Amino acid sequence: MTRFSHFVAIDWSGAVGPRHKAIAMAIADAKGGAPVLVKREKGWSRQEVLALLRDDLPPATLVGLDLGISLPFVDCGSFFPGWHESPSDARSLWQMIERICLDDPHLAASSFVDHPDASAYFRRHGGREGARFGGGRGRFRVTEIEQAKLGCKPYSNFNLVGAAQVGKSSLTGMRMLHALRGHLPVWPIDPLPAKGSVIVEIYTSLAAITAGRTASRAKMRTFEELNAALINLGSPPIAAKGAIDDHASDALVTSAWLRTVADNPALWAPAAMTAQVAQTEGWTFGVA
Q1: What phi and psi, each to the nearest 5 degrees, are found at residue 25?
Q2: H/E segment holding residue 169
Q3: Which of 77, 197, 246, 281 has the most CB atoms around it within 10 Å of its CB?
Q4: What is the pTM of this model?
Q5: What are φ and ψ of residue 64, in 5° steps?
Q6: H helices of 45-141, where?
Q7: Residue 239 — left, alpha, or beta (φ > 0 → left; ψ -120 to 50 → alpha)?
Q8: Among the listed residues 187, 162, 165, 166, the one whose alpha carbon sits nearest the alpha carbon of residue 177
Q9: Is the peptide bond before 72 cis (omega within 30 degrees of 0)?
């Protein structure tokens, strides 16, 4: 019997603006049934997601956030090698981002990526590649290297260019995680508590692969495709047909996937996740 009562998956967005159609949230009940989309008529704001996670979660909920909870550290022994202000761990990184972006509205992180020192480590739009970006596909966390071994196609969180980039989502997400300090633990930066709710990082493509899709076909844009994936995960299908946007389908299939895999002890103790990795880079739940 799982210790969690509910499983929430959130497809996040790092886009500029107060509300985002790209933010999608779904919840699956541990007792069974099809996952349910949690909707906002005009789209979610990041502050609304923050408020729900802080104040309105069902007890003992496993929350999956589709974003990187930290930046690469282990490869260079530093988030920002050569910068004397580089933080020593993930929580200090979140605090730094919050301090620099304090005046950015809607939990945005524009001030950080445009910061005269921090910008040197990012690849930004307009061909602006920082001198310390590292070239090629950029730097990767240990968990992202392990993701690739599972058939996923991770992007560096220092890359802010391209439709598949997750850097902006990750940086705005880190502001939210900083705001949740003292309210919700974030695994593995915090240890898994014996009871209560916890946040984990997710990669929705990993859920889709487990549900029978491939990395190149991870996006599901019809209820027929989504329901086939849900059935493969042992979940009842959703009573709907026709088109669905891929943000919603990502959240729905991943909430059902969390319900399926949450009790697998191997996923809470990945072999490559050392204590240093856990405290600096974090980890993606489901990558063992």
Answers
A1: -130, 135
A2: helix 167-179
A3: 281
A4: 0.96
A5: -105, 125
A6: 46-55, 90-100, 110-113
A7: beta
A8: 187
A9: no
198: β partners: 62
Token pair 């915090």 is found at 190
* 15: Cβ contacts below 8 Å, ≥ 6 apart: 22, 168
Phi, psi of 141 (to 5 degrees): -75, 165
Residue type, 52: L
CA distances from 174 to 20, 59, 102, 207 (A): 17, 23, 13, 22
Q: How far is CA 11 from CA 40, 80, 112, 195, in A?
A: 14, 27, 22, 25
Mean pLDDT confidence for 2-23:
94
- One-letter amino acid at 262 equals A
Give 234-284 pLDDT, tens digit per residue.
999 999 999 999 999 999 999 999 999 999 999 999 999 999 999 999 999
How far apart CA 107 and CA 104 sit, in angstroms, is 6
| Structure tokens that stand for 177 in this block | 């995680």
Tokens standing for residue 174: 């880190």
Structure tokens at 284: 């993606």
Domain residue extents for the chain: 1-288
> At 70, is the secondary structure helix, strand, or coil?
coil
Q: CA-CA distances (angstroms) from residue 99 to 92, 156, 161, 199?
A: 10, 23, 24, 22
* Euclidean distance between CA atoms 175 and 129, whole angstroms: 24
